Amino acid sequence: MSTYSYKREIPIEPAYDVVIAGGGPSGVAAAIAAARSGAKTLLVEATGALGGMSTNGLVANWYCLSDGEKIITRGLFWEIVRTLRDAGGLRKGLDPDTLTPGLGCGFGYSAEILKVVLDKIADLLLCTRMIDVDVDRTSKKIAGVVIQHVEGIRYVPAKAFIDATGDALLADACGANYREAGRDTPNIMPPTLCAVNANIDWSKFDYGQQQKAIEAGVAAGEFSQPDKHVPGLFRSQESYGIQNAGHIFRMNAVKIKSLTEGYVKGRKLAAEYSNFFKKHLPGCENLEMVGTGALMGVRESRSVEGEYQLNYDDFKARRQFDDQIGVYSKGVDIHVYDLTPEEYKRYYDSFVKRDRLKVGETYGLPYGILVPRGWQNLWATGRTVSADVEVQGAIRDQPACYMLGEAAGCAAVQSIKTGQPACDLDTRELLTTLKSRGAYLPQQTFAKAMTRR
Q1: Of 154, 386, 415, 436, which residue is most buried, by most CB within 10 angstroms?
Q2: Per-residue pLDDT of the chain in tens (453 residues, 90 and over written 9)
Q3: CA–CA separation, 169 vs 133, rounded Å?
Q4: Which one, of 423, 441, 330, lies nearest residue 373 by Cα?
């Protein structure tokens, strides 16, 4: 590809303490945590609403909130859940404070009401993208970012930066190392474009019949793509639900042509599944597809090379860390890469049989997975944290992302106040802060130094 060089002067915005790129679950949590710690914080979000997959992506369902005995996704995330309840965003009669903490427990919610709840972030720029960075790659330190919105291009200086873009866009611009699906791995976990379906009679709906109906529909040739692995319909509110169905195979979220084609195919698949459910599932006779997500449900794109990489051996051992910022309980969930019988068997043997946790089991989320290796004032949170392919497939879900984001926001402010770089932070101090804010940290000891590898 040929290149074009240009130079221009752009306005400089007032300086911030913390700038966060990306307003999904992890970015929102990071922004709230940093602001509460007294930092002047700017959250930059490319779309017109906060929440990412929680809202724009229409994945309006939280689960794996418990280890089967107690709620483990505490801290800021649970505060957001309670605020959503008080705003009328949960089904009538559903109270998170009296939720039975069964294994895999969770619930749906109103994505629209959550948008309003999250709008209360103090300093926020919607419809704004981070497009470049002012960085010293030798010292691994960032001085500012370049953003673009309807008024043009601006330079924003700051002391600390958090990449919550989901695709490691800030880390990539800085030159930080990462693993990219499809480039550094043989496969890319396929995304799904979710939809909202209304007029469902849940009293007649049988969750157990979805899979059988889909398999019969595939055998009868009712789909353009014979995909038997379909999570399906989930109840969100009284009469409507989230449709999480259909895979967009080999879509690369960091290649624009592939992403564009993915949205086109995703809308086609969403319509197919809505029509199928209306035709074949009890309770869906009057189903109407209200709309598809404004955000693609990307499951895998990039994962930074961190001070520590959480790996499958850690997962199997249910390892706990002295520097963990939280624990989680979801099993490895690597969706089928293609439509072969071998892939369906691999998925069933892993997610359904081998890699589910038992009651009381969790694994730790160590601080080092948030820090691109050697970087002074950069954190990466959400589904781009440092983890191998298997574990990324377990911790990419929203509740974990909220916990990771809160830790990144607190760490960034601690770094500013103490002069401790991200890559050499006093984790004991960080964990003490998180615990004082309600985080569930079951480890016996709080380590001063992070786990590394």
Answers
A1: 386
A2: 899 998 999 999 999 999 999 999 999 999 999 999 999 999 999 999 999 999 999 999 999 999 999 999 999 999 999 999 999 999 888 899 999 999 889 999 999 999 999 998 778 999 999 999 999 999 999 999 999 999 999 999 999 999 999 999 999 999 999 999 999 999 999 999 999 999 999 999 988 889 899 999 999 999 999 998 888 888 887 778 999 999 999 999 999 999 999 999 999 999 999 999 999 999 999 999 999 999 999 999 999 999 999 999 999 999 999 999 999 999 999 999 999 999 999 998 988 789 999 999 999 999 999 999 999 999 999 999 999 999 999 999 999 999 999 999 999 999 999 999 999 999 999 999 999 999 999 999 999 999 998
A3: 10
A4: 423
Architecture of domain 11-186+299-453: 3-Layer(bba) Sandwich (3.50)
**Helices 25-36/398-418 angle, 10° precision:** 30
Q: Where are the beta strands (DSSP E) in 282-390?
A: 288-292, 302-304, 324-328, 363-366, 378-380
Q: Is the C-alpha dihedral spanning 429, 435, 440, 446 positive or negative?
A: positive
Please give the single-letter amino acid code of residue 142.
I
Residue extents of the structural domains in the chain: 11-186+299-453, 195-292
